[in-house]
């Protein structure tokens, strides 16, 4: 199916006359610069290395791996530790930035009451009693014989009472 002449697009008469009268000699000379430079051998080698690495990763068999446990060396603090650190930091800031000019002058009175002699004597007696008990020498005791003052009745006496 060929298109007929009347179906072809029409060109403006002015443009047609300009195109017919155009002289290529009036054009300036220009050098052509190729913008798509071929890669160097170094670029090709780098790309091959990267491609081989990617293929190695894609083809890696995960069945060869061993199971391991991960141990966290530097765990993050929990919310209680963070809260405690904030409180500590606020206290330090309060102490560091305290304004001494707002303080009132005071007189310091040292009170160091010593115990009265009676309390000292009671404490000495208590310590001597404890020391005497702890350091008691059992070798100073004399041997004694125990005498029963209320002897138990014999079997015969019990039988006689049952009969009576």
TrEMBL record:
One term under GO cellular component: cytosol
One annotated GO biological process: actin filament organization
UniProt-annotated stretches for the region Disordered: 94-164
GO terms for MF: actin monomer binding
Compositionally biased residues, Basic and acidic residues: 136-148
Keyword Cytoplasm: yes
Keyword 4Fe-4S among UniProt keywords: no
Family affiliation: Belongs to the thymosin beta family.
UniProt protein name: HsjCib isoform2
Gene source species: Hodotermopsis sjostedti
């Amino acid at each position: 199916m060929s298109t007929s002449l009347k179906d072809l697009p029409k060109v403006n008469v002015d443009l047609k006359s300009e195109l017919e009268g155009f002289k290529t000699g009036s054009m300036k000379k220009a050098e052509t610069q190729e913008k798509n430079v071929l890669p160097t051998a170094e670029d090709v080698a780098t790309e091959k290395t990267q491609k081989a690495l990617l293929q190695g990763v894609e083809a890696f068999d995960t069945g060869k791996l061993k199971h391991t446990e991960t141990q966290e060396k530097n765990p993050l603090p929990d919310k209680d530790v963070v809260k405690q650190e904030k409180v500590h930091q606020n206290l330090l800031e309060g102490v560091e930035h305290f304004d001494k000019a707002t303080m009132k002058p005071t007189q310091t009175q040292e009170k160091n009451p010593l115990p009265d002699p009676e309390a000292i004597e009671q404490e000495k007696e208590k310590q001597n009693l404890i020391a005497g008990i702890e350091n008691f020498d059992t070798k100073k005791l004399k041997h004694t014989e125990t005498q029963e003052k209320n002897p138990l009745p014999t079997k015969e006496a019990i039988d006689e009472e049952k009969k009576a």
